[in-house]
Amino acid sequence: MSAGMDAGVVIVGAGQAGGRVALLLAQRGYPGPVTLVGAETLPPYERPPLSKEMLADPQHPLPLLVPAEEYERLGIALRLGRRVMAIDRARRRVMLDDGQSLPYGRLVLATGGQPRQLPFTLERLQVLRTVEDVRAIAARAEQAASVLVIGGGVIGLEVAATLRKRGLAVTVVEVGSRLLGRNFPEPVAAAIADRHAAEGVAVRTGVRVRAVSEDDAGLHATLSDGSTVGADFAVVGIGITPDTALAQECGLVTDDGVVVDADMRSSDPDILAVGDMAAIPGPDGRPMRCETWQNANVTAERAVATILGEAIPPGEAGWFWTDQYDLNVQLTGDTMIGDSGRLVEQRATVAGGRLYLMLDGGSRLVGAAAINAGRDMSVCRRLVAAGAALPAALLESDRFDARAARALLTPSPASVRPVDA
Ligand SMILES: Cc1cc2nc3c(=O)[nH]c(=O)nc-3n(C[C@H](O)[C@H](O)[C@H](O)COP(=O)(O)OP(=O)(O)OC[C@H]3O[C@@H](n4cnc5c(N)ncnc54)[C@H](O)[C@@H]3O)c2cc1C
Fold this sequence. Notes:
Blueprint: E1 9-12, H1 16-27, E2 34-38, H2 53-56, H3 69-73, E3 76-80, E4 84-88, E5 93-96, E6 101-103, E7 106-109, E8 113-115, E9 125-127, H4 131-143, E10 146-150, H5 154-165, E11 169-174, H6 186-198, E12 202-205, E13 209-215, E14 218-223, E15 228-231, E16 233-236, E17 240-242, H7 245-249, E18 254-255, E19 257-259, E20 271-273, E21 278-281, E22 287-288, H8 293-308, E23 319-324, E24 327-333, E25 342-347, E26 354-359, E27 365-371, H9 374-386, H10 392-396, H11 402-407
Parallel strand pairs: 1-2, 1-7, 2-3, 7-20, 9-16, 10-11, 10-16, 11-12, 19-21
Antiparallel strand pairs: 4-5, 5-6, 8-17, 13-14, 14-15, 18-19, 21-22, 23-24, 24-27, 25-26, 26-27
InterPro entries: FAD-oxidoreductase/Apoptosis (IPR050446), FAD/NAD-bd_sf (IPR036188), FAD/NAD-binding_dom (IPR023753), FAD/NAD-linked_Rdtase_dimer_sf (IPR016156), Reductase_C (IPR028202)
Domain Reductase C-terminal: 319-403
Keywords: FAD, Flavoprotein, Oxidoreductase
């Protein structure tokens, strides 16, 4: 065993990223003890189904990463319902909320984030991050005829779509001038907005919630334009704040998230950070956080490779999806077109699907968005990762040519050089 391995790995946060770190370490034969400490009482579970399948049907099975028994079988010590309160870097120990402390050789921070709240504490205002939250929202929806969704981002719109399908009258209030303004290209956001409007959702953009009150009759919101919206309850989806308090208190470098290198090492090389709370090096080298399921898995893979001393897996293009009504929307790479970029819209190879290709100043594919075109998106993800330039014929067609696109990923015989060349 190398130095520190006898104290093993302690992972703080038993969510998507922390759970994957623990499982991968055990599955790949890490010889030291692996301890996963999680503030929630459930073993690690996936969050994407919360705003989709679980809100539609609270009886939907829990989306656990693996069955609970698997941790015991793999020799992972689960400390659930326990919060890490402090990190003592000098003594290499973490302090738990039950007064105990645990030694570590390597520490992995995977604490995710907390939903941002409005400055009002009201019973009828809900947020959505955990299984408990979704159960509370579903219980409210059971008794309600209407809901106000505050925030026209992904979580808010998924909640709006799911509750609309459950028959509630839905109003969405978004402070930005359009829905999904943070990372969706304009035509894709417009297609989603149109779909909500067609389903009867009232979408109000460019207005802020100024005040909210509640009484026996329901919840009353006053907006920045002076108008009021009434609903039985509200769901707030205005983003998350990364949970970096522990890291800050023990002196790690943070910049929105915990700053890590490509190996997921923080400013203390024995402390790694993964998932939503890690600020990884972005394309321009500056730290950036990424709040996606894929990023949780990719950063977990990287941290595990670092701990095991293995080669770091090659980079993938960032990828994200959302499901609203029967729209499956996927994004990869850089999806906000800058001044020099260009967006090409095409029919997908699947009937009814649309593809949006983002090009840099020339013909290099830097990002893509797909509406109901998952198969084409998987080619685009690989093209973006490869930094492929698209030939004019492919860009000029009004339909995506998946075969020609795939051919760009296969080296032609002429480009294969003999090893001794
Ligand atoms: C409703 C919803 C829908 C989503 N849908 C999609 C989607 O469709 N597509 C997509 O790509 N992404 C989606 N995401 C995002 C994705 O789920 C997250 O990016 C992912 O869960 C991040 O994983 P994480 O492990 O970093 O954080 P989390 O999963 O949040 O886990 C962090 C865990 O750490 C625990 N913790 C915090 N502090 C401590 C402490 N001091 N001690 C112990 N434990 C602690 C927390 O309780 C939590 O359980 C969705 C997220 C939500 C909330």
